[in-house]
Amino acid sequence: MSVQVWTYLLVGITFTLYIGIAIWSRAGSTKEFYVAGGGVSPLANGMATAADWMSAASFISMAGIIAFAGYDGSVYLMGWTGGYVLLALLLAPYLRKFGKFTVPDFIGDRYYSNTARMVAVFCALIVSFTYVAGQMRGVGVVFSRFLQVDINTGVIIGMVIVLFYAVLGGMKGITYTQVAQYCVLIFAFMVPAIFISFQMTGNPVPQLGMGSTLNDGSGTFLMDRLNGLSTELGFAEYTDGTKSVIDVFAITLALMVGTAGLPHVIVRFFTVKRVKDARKSAGLALLLIAILYTTAPAVSVFAKINLIDTVSNKEYSLMPVWFKNWEETGLLSFDDKNKDGIIQYVADKDKNELTVDNDIMVLANPEIANLPAWVIALVAAGGLAAALSTAAGLLLVISASVSHDLIKKVFKPNISEKGELWAARGAATVAVVIAGYFGINPPGFVAAVVALAFGLAAASFFPAIVLGIFYKKMNKEGAIGGMVVGISLMLFYMAKFKLGWLGEIPDKSEWWFGISPEGFGTVAMIVNFIVALVINRFTPEPPENVQEIVENIRIPSGAGEAVDH
């Protein structure tokens, strides 16, 4: 069977599975809609958390970024995995014990202030919409390439699927759908990696294959081969970095603390019965995430070598079918500058004739390596599973922020449970439509503002949550001041140095402290901490009952189910 037939088959089976699970596990109460009833097992929650964590950015983009950035791409591995460890050890168990449905709910009640709640809702919406727009666009790209439909049509199909199981099932439906999606995405990522590792090195374990010799009898190590190819084409050695130490540190820390403050992942720890289960599911999720994250560097090496061997200094007319297929998506292009029909892929921008989008490397890798059609189709199904799982989690955060944190807690406290459930579903529907719109009509800065999502979470949520848990005398004035200043500083820096909203983007020599926009969330976070603590010093202490709640959060004992106080 052809790749397209296999893709229709595998995507059809997986989508039917997701919809079936949503119907089976539809939510009948706000508790089921927000936190799956609070009764999810640690294993199921660990798998769902892993799927929620590993978005299209992890499945599709991360290996592609590493393939082209080389050593510098390691900041994403360190930042994202380090962020998960930080979340699992430092935040999740305590947030679970507090017993709230959402991060804005925690901040609003911990800082006894609807103003704090509103600031947190604003942050949650900005972060979530930034992410979900990228997920929907990823869905459109996968559909466009593998199902031969227009990208916009692909986005609409993705919208309908996510809308169905997110709106119908809420967190309960999303949780069990994400368990299935984890199985699909990890299988889809590992199968081609194992195939290609064995094909190139004779070692079926990708992590070991990356450090092995080539399977051609030359005795050359795989990484030495890639370094040689890179320098021949004028690029820096793959294993060398170009970023300064302070920038690597800042980006890694910004990704860590930003990731640890992402609301759609934090909410997953509210779905288990006990604090002990939150710790267990965090540990299980880390192991499940590590399978993909330790494989991604190997996939990036395999993909880069295969790409260079296939296209560099080769005749365009002899390019395989996969090359022409990706050209049609606009994510791969050849500009024959010297009109000789030969593809010049070099570091010199004036001479380079090949433009490759980072995001195609994982999706195109099985095709470049001539793997069987079913493996190529499996990767498409895995990419869709990764994008849809995270999109669903983000949409739930958006709907809960609107229905629970705004309508229920601020504007209409006496709303019935049924009314709140309908409001949540309505908010999710509107959010899907908005996300779909940005997926179809992405602003020119969508790729650029991905870093803003991490920076915004780092600059706002992380200090407020950490101080809220570990410093019982932290008051509302300090928390609100810190969040507002942190967000404002991050927005200003991104607008000036990344998005060009304040005129022409300055040269990187003008970066403050030599830190790139991707890493500036670290500086904004530190400023948030300082502002919060200074304001706290000169304003009244929080009420005694709030201080007692904070004390109780840190007592290592069992806790009841999540409740809506």
* Number of domain units: 1
Shape, please?
A: globular
CATH topology name: Sodium/glucose cotransporter
Low-confidence stretches are: 558-562
Return the structural class: mainly alpha
Q: What are the secondary-structure elements, in order, as H or E?
A: HHHHHHHHHHHHHHEEHHHHHHHH
Number of strands: 2
The CA-CA distance between the termini, in Å, is 56 Å
Radius of gyration: 24 Å
CATH superfamily: Sodium/glucose cotransporter
Our count of helices gives: 22
Q: Compute the average pLDDT.
A: 80
Largest sheet: 2 strands, antiparallel
- CATH-derived architecture: Up-down Bundle
Strand content: under 5%
The CATH class turns out to be Mainly Alpha
Strand order of the largest sheet: 1-2
Helix content: over 70%
Compact description:
The protein has 565 residues and is an all-alpha fold. It has helices at residues 3-24, 30-35, 42-53, 56-69, 74-98, 103-110, 114-146, 151-201, 206-209, 222-232, 245-260, 263-266, 275-311, 321-329, 360-368, 373-411, 417-440, 450-459, 461-470, 476-499, 520-537, 544-553; strands at 332-334, 354-356. Strands 1-2 form a two-stranded antiparallel ribbon.
List the helices and strands and how they pair.
Layout (H helix, E strand, L loop, with lengths): L2 H22 L5 H6 L6 H12 L2 H14 L4 H25 L4 H8 L3 H33 L4 H51 L4 H4 L12 H11 L12 H16 L2 H4 L8 H37 L9 H9 L2 E3 L19 E3 L3 H9 L4 H39 L5 H24 L9 H10 L1 H10 L5 H24 L20 H18 L6 H10 L12
